[in-house]
Amino acid sequence: MNGLLTDLYELTMAAGYFEAGKAAEKATFELTVRRLPEHRNYVLAAGLPQAVDYLLNLSFTAEELDYLRGLQQFRNVRPEFFDYLRDFRFTGDLFAVPEGTPLFAGEPMLVVRAPIIEAQIPETYVLAAVTFPTLVASKAARCVEMAAGRPVVEFGTRRAHTAEAGTLGARAAYIGGCAGTSNVLAGMRYGIPVMGTAAHSWVMSFPGEAEAFRQLQKVLGESTIQLLDTYDAIEGAKRVAQLGKPLWGVRLDSGDFIDLSKRVRAILDGAGLTDARIMASGDLDEYRIRDIVRAGAPIDSFGVGTQLATSYDAPAMGAIYKLVELDIHGIKRFTAKYSDDKNSVPGAKQIFRDVARDVLARSGECGKGEALLRPVILGGQLVEPLPSVNEARRRAAESVAKLSPALRELEVAEPRAVIESRELRMLIEQTRRNLLA
Amino acid sequence: MNGLLTDLYELTMAAGYFEAGKAAEKATFELTVRRLPEHRNYVLAAGLPQAVDYLLNLSFTAEELDYLRGLQQFRNVRPEFFDYLRDFRFTGDLFAVPEGTPLFAGEPMLVVRAPIIEAQIPETYVLAAVTFPTLVASKAARCVEMAAGRPVVEFGTRRAHTAEAGTLGARAAYIGGCAGTSNVLAGMRYGIPVMGTAAHSWVMSFPGEAEAFRQLQKVLGESTIQLLDTYDAIEGAKRVAQLGKPLWGVRLDSGDFIDLSKRVRAILDGAGLTDARIMASGDLDEYRIRDIVRAGAPIDSFGVGTQLATSYDAPAMGAIYKLVELDIHGIKRFTAKYSDDKNSVPGAKQIFRDVARDVLARSGECGKGEALLRPVILGGQLVEPLPSVNEARRRAAESVAKLSPALRELEVAEPRAVIESRELRMLIEQTRRNLLA
C-alpha cells in the first residue's frame, strides 16, 4: 500500500542502494525543522499518527511493481530488486517528538533508523504527513492565543488542499487549541466536537428571512445559530430578537465585525436574549481576532476557515529529511551536507528541553530537562499506542503556556535558545574535516 | 462513501430542508470564481474528475448514520431523515467548464442542479476538490510561460498538504503545462511522465562523491542526473566531467543558479559533454525562472516543488458555492445574497467566450462564441467519459496561448472583460427588488 506515493528518486536510489550492495547498511535519517515558517516563533508538532500508519503499512502491490518495471529508469535494474520490493516492509525504528510539542529551528521532529532503502523511501510521504498538520496546529495556537479564552472553531475544509487534507487539518487545529471543527468526518474519526448550523443558502431557500429562521429553530432547537448577513445583518438581528428562543446564538459572516457585533448585542439584549452568543466568521485570522478582542467587541467565538486550513501566510515549512549517519556492518559513518546555504548536522540526536533553552545533543548523551525524541516504532513494531488527540491537545496547551510571552505574540521575536552540546559540536567539526578533506 | 466528508451545516440544513418539506424542491447552485487569487490574471479550471467521482459515489454508511444520530444537533430530527440519507444518491445534473479552461472573476466553474439536499451536501467537498487543482494548474501555467520552452517538472509532493494532495497537484501541474512530475503514483494513475534520479542522501551514503556518481551511472545509465551540490557544486561538476557518459545531465539544487550554471556548462562542454543537460531545482517559482531565463543562464529544465504543490503565493482562492435559483413544483424563484461586500448573482448561467471578451448570460440564452459550461452528469449519470488529462493539458496550452500578452505576464494586468448580458442584468435588478422589497 502506498509504495508509489513517493518521489521517483526515492525508488531509483533504492534500486541503486540495492545494486551497490548497500541494502544491509543501517541509515539514520532525521526530519528537521530547518527554518521556522514565516511569521512563526515556534511550530507545534502534529501528524505523527499519519506518519506511523504509513510506515507500518508501506508495501508494493503487483500492479505497482509492474508499473515500475516498465519505466526506463529501471531498465538496468535486476529482477531481484523487484522481488525485494514485493516483500518490502518497514523493519526499522522511529523516534518522534510527541504531538503538541513546540519546536524551533534546527530541531528534529522525527528520526528514522532502518536499512537504508527502508529509511529512504518514506522521505516524501512522511514530510508531507507531518509538515501540513504541524503548520495548521501552529496557526491554530496563534488564533487561540489571540482569542483570549473565546472558543475558536475550525471551518476550513472547503479551502483545504482536498477535503481529506481538511479532515487532517481539523485534527491538527484541535491539537493547536481549537474548540471544534465543522468537518463531520473529523468529528467521527477523531472524536472532535463538531459545530455549525446553516449557510446563506438556507436563508435564501425560503421566501423570507423570518421564515428561514423559524424553520431552523424547529429543527435545531437550542443548537440554533442564525446566520444574520444574507441580506442585512442588523435587520437579521431584529428578526432573531422577535423570534426569541430556542437559540444558541447568531453568526456574522461579513462586514465590520466590531461595529456590527455591538449593534447586534444591543438588539439581542434588548429582547432579553442576553445569553445568546455572537459568533464571527469570514476572512478571520489571528491578526483580525486580536484586533476584534482588543476593540472589546462582544464576540463570543470565532470561526476560522481558509487561514487555518491552508496555513495561508505560511503554507509550507522548510523541513528537511537528511541522512545523518550510517552503520555499515557495525562501523559508523557520520554524514552531512555542506553546500553554501543548506547545511545539515551529522549524527543521530536528542533534544533536551530545559526551562530557558533547548540543548541539541548526540543521541547517546545525558542531558538536563525533558528528552523530546521518544521511541515510537522499534523493529517495525509500534512500541505502545500513540497519545490520543486530546492528550496531544493538552500537551500543546501546557507547553505553549510555558513559552516566553514574546514567543506567544504574533510578531517574530528573539528565537528561543537552541544550543548544540559540546559533543555534537565536536562531531560537526570532525565530520566537516573528514568530508571536505 | 464520503457522506460525512463535509461541513456539519450541510447536514443540519439537509435535515432542515427535509423537515420543512423542501426535499423535492430543485435547487441550482453555482461554484463561482468570486475573485481571482492574488497575483493571478486567470485561473485554469482543474479537478473536475474528482468532483464527478464524489457526486457519483456520495453515500452514507450505517456507521456514519449512527454517528449523526448521536449528535445533539440532530436530536429533534425524525428517523425518516436518516432513512432518506441511507438511500441517498446524487440524482441531479452537473454542468462544468472543461479542465484546462482559463476563467476570470465572476465566472461559474460548475453548476449543480438537483433536489436541494443533494445539491447542498456536496458544497464543501466539491469546493475543495476543484479549487486546489485549479490553483496548482494556474501556478504551473505561469512557471511554464516564464520557462519559455524549457521543461518544468513538478517536484512538490513532500510540501503538499498530504501526499495525496501532492498526487492531485501533480496532475493539475501537468494540465497547467508541466512536462512531468516526481510523484510516482501520479505517473501510474494518470499516465504522467515521471522524473528524478537521486538526492543528497545518495551522495552522502558513499564515502566519496566520485564513487556515488559512478554507482548511479551503473544503475541509471542514460537516465542519470547527477546532483552536484552536496558538498561543492563546481567540484561536483568536475567529477561528472571526469566520469563522462552515460549521462542525461546534472542538477543544481542550491546556490546562485545563474553563475553556477555558466561555470558548470563550461566544465561539461570542456569535457565534450555538450549534450548533458543542466537542471535547476530548489526554491524556484515563476519569478525566479523568469530572472534565470532573462539572464541567459544555460539551464535546460526546471524542477519546481513547494511553490507549485502549495500554490505558495495564493494557497486559496475565493470561490463560492451559492444557491442561484429554486424550482418549487414548476415555479422558479431566483435567489441571491446581498450583504455589504459579498454579493452573489441570481439565476443559472452560461459563459460565452468570444475573442476579446466573455459574456455571462442566463442559461437559456444564445450567445456568440464558445459556451463554456457543458453537461457532465445528467440525472445522476455521467453523460460521456471526461476528457483525458492530456486533452485537458492541450486545451490549457491552446487557451492560454489565445489570451492577451498582458494576461500572460506575471504582473496583475487589466482584467479581461466579463460582461453580463442584458437579460442577466434585468434578472439581477428584478431579484434585488423582490428580495429587498
What is the averaged pLDDT score of chain A? 96
Main-sheet strand order of chain A equals 13-12-1-5-3-17-18
CATH class descriptor name of the largest domain in chain A: Alpha Beta
CATH topology of the largest domain in chain A: nicotinate phosphoribosyltransferase
Span from first to last CA of chain A?
43 Å
Radius of gyration of chain A: 26 Å
What fraction strand of chain A? 15-25%
CATH superfamily of the largest domain in chain A: nicotinate phosphoribosyltransferase
Number of strands of chain A: 19
Low-confidence stretches of chain A: none
Count helical runs of chain A.
Answer: 16
Description of the structure:
2 copies of one chain form a homodimer. Chain A has 437 residues and is α/β, with parallel strands linked by helices. Chain A folds into 2 domains: 8-121 and 318-436, Alpha-Beta Barrel (nicotinate phosphoribosyltransferase), CATH 3.20.140; 135-309, Alpha-Beta Barrel (TIM Barrel). Helix content of chain A is 39%, strand content 19%. Chain A contains 16 helices and 19 strands. Chain A has helices spanning 8-19, 48-57, 62-69, 79-86, 116-120, 123-147, 163-175, 184-190, 200-204, 209-220, 233-243, 257-270, 286-294, 306-309, 389-402, 422-436; strands spanning 26-33, 43-44, 93-96, 102-103, 108-115, 152-154, 180-181, 225-227, 249-252, 277-281, 301-304, 319-328, 331-334, 349-353, 357-362, 370-371, 374-378, 381-382, 417-420. The longest helix of chain A is centred in the N-terminal third of the chain and has 25 residues, at 123-147. Chain A starts with 7 loop residues before the first helix and ends with a helix. The mean pLDDT of chain A is 96. Chains A and B meet through α1, α3, α6, α7 and α8 of A and α1, α3, α6, α7 and α8 of B.
